[in-house]
C-alpha cells in the first residue's frame, strides 16, 4: 500500500519499522520540527526523523500540518492511507478525507478509555490492571474515530510507565500492521466507539507532588506512573527528592508504631530502603534521587545522610 507515515517520539519507532519491513511503499514521513532538548538545549531531531533518514525515506517537518502548502504536498504524494502514531498535530478535515483508506491512528489505550495525550501514564497512575492499544479511523474529534482493531495488555502491580510504554509500542506496531493489511484485503470493519469515555490529559506539575496523606497504594501508583518521566517528588529536610521506586509494605512490627506516626514519617529501615507511614498503610521506598544527584538506593540515602527514624517527608 502507498502510505504516508506521521509520528514523532520513540513510541512510533516500532510502527515505522514494521510498516517498512512489510514492504509497504512509504512515500513520506511527517514528523515535528527539530527542537531544543536536554540540559544544553541542543536542537535535536525527533526519533522518527532519525529512523526515517536511516531508511532513506523522504522526511517532511511542517511547523503546521494544516497549511495550504502542506495539504498540497500531501495531495502530490497521493497516499492510499495516512498512518498516524503520536504525531503531535491535529489533522484537518481536508487531510482526513484525502486517502482512499482514510487516516489510521494507533492509540495507546483500549478506547474509549483514556482518550487524550497521556493514556499510558494515567492507566498506571490509576492502578489499572489492564490497558492496550486501539487502531481507529480518524475523524475531527480527539480520539473519537471508529475503532478498527484492539488488543489488551496486562499491567502488573510493579510495572512503571516506561515498561508499559515499550510493551505497547511493540504490540501497537503488530496491531497497526494487521490493520493496514486488513483494510487492504477488506477483512477489517470499523466499529463506532461506545458513548461513555474517560480522558487522559497532559501531566502538570501538580501531578508530580506526593501527598503522604494518600493511601500507600495511591502513592505507589503515582511513583511508578511517573517513572521514567517526569518523576514523583517529595521534600525532605528542605530538599526536593524524586522518588523512583517503591513497594507496598505488609504490616508487621511497624503496626504498633503506626498509631503514633504521621503521614510522611519514616518508621523503619529495611534491606533495600525504608518504610514511610502514609494515610493508609506503609510504603517502602527503594530508589530515589536528591536534587542535582544521581539515582541511588533509598538505603544508601538513609545512611549517607544519617537519617533518624521519625524524620518526615513533606
Can you give me a brief rundown of this structure?
The chain has 314 residues and is an alpha/beta fold. It contains nine helices and 15 strands. A seven-stranded mixed β-sheet has the order 5-2-1-6-7-8-9.
Describe the structure.
There is one protein chain. This protein is of the alpha/beta class and 314 residues long. It has 2 domains: 2-185, Formyl transferase, N-terminal domain (Rossmann fold, 3-Layer(aba) Sandwich); 205-304, Formyl transferase, C-terminal domain (Methionyl-tRNA Fmet Formyltransferase, Chain A, domain 2), CATH 3.10.25.10. 27% of the residues lie in helices and 26% in strands. It is built from 9 helices and 15 strands. It has helices at 13-21, 47-54, 68-77, 93-96, 119-125, 161-185, 216-225, 255-258, 298-304, and strands spanning 2-7, 25-30, 35-37, 42-44, 59-60, 81-85, 103-107, 130-137, 147-154, 232-236, 239-249, 266-269, 274-277, 282-290, 296-297. It has a 7-stranded mixed beta sheet with strand order 5-2-1-6-7-8-9. A hairpin with a 2-residue loop joins strand 10 (232-236) and strand 11 (239-249). The longest helix has 25 residues, at 161-185. The mean pLDDT is 95.
Topology overview:
Layout: E1 2-7, H1 13-21, E2 25-30, E3 35-37, E4 42-44, H2 47-54, E5 59-60, H3 68-77, E6 81-85, H4 93-96, E7 103-107, H5 119-125, E8 130-137, E9 147-154, H6 161-185, H7 216-225, E10 232-236, E11 239-249, H8 255-258, E12 266-269, E13 274-277, E14 282-290, E15 296-297, H9 298-304
Parallel strand pairs: 1-2, 1-6, 2-5, 6-7
Antiparallel strand pairs: 3-4, 7-8, 8-9, 10-11, 11-14, 12-13, 13-14, 14-15
Amino acid at each position: 500500500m502507498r502510505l504516508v507515515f506521521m509520528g514523532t517520539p520513540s513510541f512510533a519507532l516500532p510502527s515505522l519499522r514494521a510498516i517498512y519491513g512489510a514492504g509497504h511503499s512509504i512515500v513520506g514521513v511527517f514528523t515535528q520540527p527539530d527542537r531544543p532538548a536536554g540540559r544544553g538545549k541542543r536542537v535535536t531531531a525527533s526519533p522518527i526523523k532519525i529512523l526515517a533518514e536511516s531508511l532513506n525515506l523522504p522526511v517532511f517537518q511542517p511547523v503546521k500540518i494544516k497549511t495550504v502548502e502542506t495539504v498540497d504536498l500531501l495531495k502530490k504524494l497521493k497516499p492510499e492511507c495516512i498512518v498516524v502514531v503520536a504525531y503531535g498535530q491535529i489533522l484537518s478535515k481536508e487531510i482526513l478525507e484525502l486517502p482512499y483508506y482514510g487516516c489510521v491512528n494507533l492509540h495507546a489505550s483500549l478506547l474509549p478509555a483514556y482518550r487524550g495525550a497521556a493514556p499510558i501514564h494515567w492507566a498506571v497512575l490509576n492502578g489499572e490492571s489492564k490497558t492496550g492499544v486501539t487502531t481507529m479511523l480518524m475523524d475531527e474529534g480527539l480520539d473519537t474515530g471508529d475503532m478498527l482493531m484492539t488488543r489488551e495488555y496486562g499491567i502488573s502491580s510493579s510495572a512503571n510507565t516506561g515498561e508499559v510504554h515499550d510493551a505497547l509500542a511493540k504490540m501497537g506496531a503488530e496491531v497497526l500492521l494487521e490493520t493496514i493489511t486488513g483494510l487492504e484485503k477488506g477483512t477489517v470493519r470499523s466499529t463506532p466507539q461506545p458513548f461513555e469515555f474517560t480522558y487522559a490529559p497532559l501531566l502538570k506539575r501538580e501531578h508530580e507532588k506526593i501527598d503522604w496523606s494518600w493511601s500507600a497504594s495511591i502513592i505507589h501508583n503515582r511513583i511508578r506512573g511517573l517513572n521514567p518521566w517526569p518523576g514523583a517528588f517529595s521534600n525532605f529536610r528542605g530538599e526536593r527528592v524524586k522518588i523512583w521506586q517503591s513497594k507496598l509494605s505488609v504490616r508487621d512490627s511497624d503496626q504498633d508504631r503506626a498509631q503514633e506516626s504521621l503521614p510522611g514519617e519514616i518508621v523503619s529501615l529495611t534491606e533495600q530502603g525504608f518504610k514511610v507511614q502514609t494515610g493508609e498503610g506503609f510504603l517502602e521506598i527503594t530508589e530515589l534521587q536528591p536534587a542535582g544527584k544521581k539515582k541511588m538506593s533509598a538505603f544508601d540515602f538513609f545512611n549517607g545522610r544519617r537519617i533518624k527514624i521519625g524524620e518526615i517527608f513533606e
